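Hi support team,

I submitted a single chain yesterday and got back a structure, but I'm not sure I'm reading the token output correctly. Could someone confirm the output below corresponds to the sequence I sent? I've pasted both exactly as they appear in my results page.

Thanks,
R.
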Amino acid sequence: MKETVSFKVNVEDVSKRRRIIKENLKHKPSYKGPFKVKGKFNNYPVVKLDISIPVYHMNNGRTREKQRTYLIKNNKNEKFFVNGQENNNQQRIQHQILFELAQDSTANIFNELKKSNVFREDAPLLVDSHGMLINGNRRLAAIRELYQSNQDKFKNFRTVPCAVIQEHLDDVDIKEIENNIQVKRELKAEYSWISLCLEVKDERERLSRSNKEIAASMGYTEEKVERLFNLTNVIDKCLEEDHKSKGNYDLIKDQQQLWKNTEERASKKGTTKGERDLIYKIGRMISVNSGKFGDRDYKIASSLQKKTSLFQVMELLKDRYKSIKSNRVVRDKNDPLRGLDRVDPKPQVDPIEVDQIPVKSGEKQIEILQEVEESLLQSGDESASVRYSKDALKKIISMNSMRFPDKHRREIKNNLNELIRKCQRLIKDKKL
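Hi R., thanks for writing in. Yes, this is the structure output for that exact sequence:
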């Protein structure tokens, strides 16, 4: 069970922070810490600062996902955190987020510091000349809470070693440092999959960085960066249009495998635009209905998103959604040249038709996806239709010996009438 916050952040005035840091730098630092800044490794002086001095970095990649969730739930402006760099309220909320992350099961910084009661001198926090934390936000949150919980026991945490970067840093410089320390190394695993997606999007859109620059900074390939960016756009569209909750990443945080597989399938070499759009569309359909298939979300996705089945899937969906208008060119029978085209080209999934597939939540949509999956599974089985008709008949016959309780009679009648309609339609469509 995670601890709750008790430390109350009070932001010291920036001029006071600068003065205190400057005064500490006048004294000969005990040692210097090597950090890569502006593309070069330099040794930066390490000073001891009271834990009240540093301020959390609001534009922190690791906290971006949880910040977005807070904005949605509390109806706050997009700039709420960024504009609150020097604000007590925003800093306290950021502290809460960071303390929660410090207790993450994959890297429980809080428990490690609690057990050791020692802050490693050779791994200082990193601050700028204003006292803004560039690296070590989670550690500071954990230290503050431990000191607050027992000031005698954790007196070692009253001050923390901080390496100070004195030169001017812009947003790109800070992002480079963050990536080199946090993302590029072993700590990459501590970033959630959504946080990594949002990081790429932030660097592309806010910092106007190229895929090449981002890839070099994060230790990824350019292809990986592009895929993460594309995936972010898809899940953003899914949240806004399908879940009707723009930016609420909490709704899909447990769907990593679904979206990871979806992106991998959509990015395969040779995949056409129509196929890629259909793969993403299926991902969205399953996402909005996630959990309603029992434990079969990934199985259905795997079946419907298979490249070799995509055209068939599209045809099956068109059969169920009569609103989809075909975009296929129909040959003119009177065309004197029609006979020259003796070999039909390989059928393609049309992106215009894919765009018409509705993404809905509810029993009807679940039923359709399950029907399509079942049709795929039985497509190579010539006896399946006979077997299915026999099974259906047996179940109907067995109902003659069953009781029809009053409270269920209307529902049973409606189901049977719907069954009649579907049987009649099947007989007509298949010309039986």
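A quick pointer for reading it: Residues 268-327+347-380 form one domain. Let us know if anything else looks off.

Best,
Support desk
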